[in-house]
Amino acid sequence: MSAITFKNITRDFKDGGRTIHVLKDTNVEINSGEFVAIVGPSGSGKSTFLTIAGGLQTPTSGEVYINGQELSVLSEKEREKLRLNEVGFILQASNLVPFLKVNDQFNLFDRIMKDDRSDYRDELLEQLGIKELSNKYPEDLSGGEQQRVAIAKALYNDPTILLADEPTASLDTERALEVVDILAKEAKEQDKAIIMVTHDKRLLDKCDRVLEMKDGELNEVEE
Ligand SMILES: Nc1ncnc2c1ncn2[C@@H]1O[C@H](COP(=O)(O)OP(=O)(O)OP(=O)(O)O)[C@@H](O)[C@H]1O
């Protein structure tokens, strides 16, 4: 099933009197169960692609579909609901709240969602090998541990789509491969669509597809 579809997407930004065409007529379809890498030079529009895919910013023209639902026909509230239910984000800056212990990061989410997912939480933390970190603050965790907690947070709501912006940027090779293995496993075993922006060529073997953003266009890289 198509998780994310871009139809003739463009995204322009104004820079002084100049218009920069960051995305030019981008067409792509990413399916459930696929683990896809987005590569490309700095400033080529990878983060722009990811934030449009997750409904965080709107394109200048074209249509974006999340699980078959076109976004532009939804109200801001409906878009927010879809995003909250269907999309998990792992952003460049760690999305951990610095003054909350790991466990309380999840409690906060339960409170916001008026839900209690503690059974699923235990399972998730166990699966990611971070259950023993529950009582620690983010600053007491290594980069790899912080990133695994960030992944657990992104997965906590069981989203069908996971968007990750350089999730391994601060990690050494061993930890980076570990994180990518977790993402690959989530895509396959939980049938999630996972899109990862990365500069790290060592990780590409683990992905089902590699797309390159260059000169405003997104093209499949043949391996
Ligand atoms: N809100 C904005 N306003 C104006 N220009 C923007 C905005 N967001 C992005 N841009 C411009 O769009 C271009 C693409 O930015 P983007 O962050 O998507 O690239 P990127 O490929 O993710 O870069 P990097 O690899 O360095 O993170 C850049 O030239 C950037 O300056």
Automatic annotation (TrEMBL):
The lineage of its organism: Bacteria, Bacillati, Bacillota, Bacilli, Lactobacillales. It comes from the Bacteria. One of its GO terms (cellular component) is membrane protein complex. Keywords: Amino-acid transport, ATP-binding, Nucleotide-binding, Transport. SUPFAM superfamilies: P-loop containing nucleoside triphosphate hydrolases. This is Putative ABC transport system ATP-binding protein. Gene3D superfamilies: P-loop containing nucleotide triphosphate hydrolases. GO terms for molecular function: ATP binding; ATP hydrolysis activity; transmembrane transporter activity. Residues 4-223 form the ABC transporter domain. It holds the Pfam family ABC_tran. GO terms for biological process: amino acid transport. InterPro entries: AAA+_ATPase, ABC_transporter-like_ATP-bd, ABC_transporter-like_CS, MacB-like_ATP-bd, P-loop_NTPase. PANTHER family: CELL DIVISION ATP-BINDING PROTEIN FTSE, LIPOPROTEIN-RELEASING SYSTEM ATP-BINDING PROTEIN LOLD. It comes from Aerococcus suis. Belongs to the ABC transporter superfamily.
